[in-house]
Amino acid sequence: MDKIKQNINGIKIIPLRQINDERGAVYHVLNSTDSHFTKFGEAYFSKINSGVVKAWKYHKEMTQNFSVPYGKLKLVCFDSREDSATYGIITVLFLDPDENYNLIQVPPKIWYGFQCISKQDCLLLNIADISHDPYESMSEGINSSSIKYKWR
Amino acid sequence: MDKIKQNINGIKIIPLRQINDERGAVYHVLNSTDSHFTKFGEAYFSKINSGVVKAWKYHKEMTQNFSVPYGKLKLVCFDSREDSATYGIITVLFLDPDENYNLIQVPPKIWYGFQCISKQDCLLLNIADISHDPYESMSEGINSSSIKYKWR
Question: What is the mean pLDDT of the segment spanning B3-28?
Fold first, then answer.
């Protein structure tokens, strides 16, 4: 699995396979046999309208597995873990089905937000390792002063 | 869970929730706490070009959980299980994100095929309870004489 890249400590960027033919394609997402698979909690889509920003969010316990089968998404992550080797780092990742068809695995305790940067809407699939639970997440406004990133 | 409908014995049609706001939506898919959830094997997308038929396929062991977040899909299922109360039945189901946003759970030993019937391509998400294994599936051609359904 030497194709897996890391940026902020614990965030994994995993290239995903697409098998294309004249009828369409099969897009791999996540397999229980993958070395980066932990467990299955819940799968859901976020549909994000063109241009829209959804930010900021933080999970205390949830590991998320993001893939984008439609549209082009910008994902911004901020490492606020004081004991992390990448503490304070902000990273910007792009996800789409064409040039950046990757799985992004985001561990808990990372602030993140995303924006649909395509003219068409975006579909983001999240396969999370626990079920949705409002008590394990936190939010900040888009213009939060504690994260040094300006959405446009 | 009295909203769950059955047609061919074992095929479940589960209405899925969508939470819409001005920024987009959250589309539920599958939760490990759902009564119909069995286990997680693999998640992948089938992209089907407009008008294209992919048929026929049969799994000896795999239970599939289908949802369609983009496009409009026709799913046709045939019960060839001689010991089934619905033996010989063919059923036609529609899946899309607007009017038919359902999870269709297809148990093993059902012949099925699908067609993208929208002008735009379709995206079909399958969350299967086992990983892909070519030895547990069988195929027939679109015009198979053993299934009394004519694709157009």
Answer: 91
Out of B33, B43, B97, closest to residue A29 by CB: B43
Where are chain B's structural domains?
5-139
Integer Cα distance of B38 and B34 in angstroms: 9
Burial tier of B71 (Cβ tally within 10 Å: 0-12, 13-18, 19+): buried
A40, A45, A52, A116, best to mutate vs chain B, most B CBs in 10 Å: A45
Please enumerate residues of A whose Cβ is less than 8 A from a Cβ of B: 22-33, 39-49, 52, 54, 69-70, 97, 116, 121-123, 125, 127, 131-132
Torsion of CA A41, A42, A43, A45, to 10 degrees: -140
What is the ipTM, given to two decimal places? 0.94
Choose among A93, A71, A127: nearest CA to A15.
A93
What is the CB neighbour count within 10 angstroms for residue A13? 17
Q: Please name the member of A27, A40, A121 whose beta carbon is closest to the beta carbon of B44.
A: A27
**Assigned CATH topology for domain B5-139:** Jelly Rolls (2.60.120)
Indicate the pairing of strand B42-48 with strand B122-128.
antiparallel
Task: Give the mean model confidence (pLDDT) for residues B70-86.
Answer: 96
Optimal mutation site among A22, A28, A30, A40, interface B, most CBs of chain B within 10 A = A40
Write the single-letter amino acid at B28: H
